[in-house]
Amino acid sequence: MREFNNYMEQVKYSVSQMVLFNNYPRVNIDYFDNDLQAGTLQSLEEDYVYQWYAVEIFGDENEETERLGIFWDEYLEIYIMPVTHFGTIWTGVEPVDERKRVEDKNNDTNIQAAKHAQKF
Q1: How far is CA 116 from CA 11, 95, 109, 119, in A?
Q2: Per-residue pLDDT reduced to its tens digit, 88-118
């Protein structure tokens, strides 16, 4: 898995072109039927998707596009990237992994904290 310094760097690695598409949920009301990553699905259920982008990706879908939550919309035949944060420029946001649910992220944080505490 590749390491990134921020969200912008992560997006630039996988996305060649993008256009803001905030109408997406109204254009395809069945968007929940797409193959969504667990974290993306959870964000949608909790109303935490703040922007939508229609994107072109470099090459094929891979681990990095999955981490961004990018998915193929069968109906529109385009890739869609949901953005689950707002209020901060993308260079100021940590890289995301939309494959994980919040509980998984919290568990990872707890494991890292425990390992850090063991060092002292």
Answers
A1: 29, 21, 10, 5
A2: 999 999 999 988 865 554 444 344 434 334 4
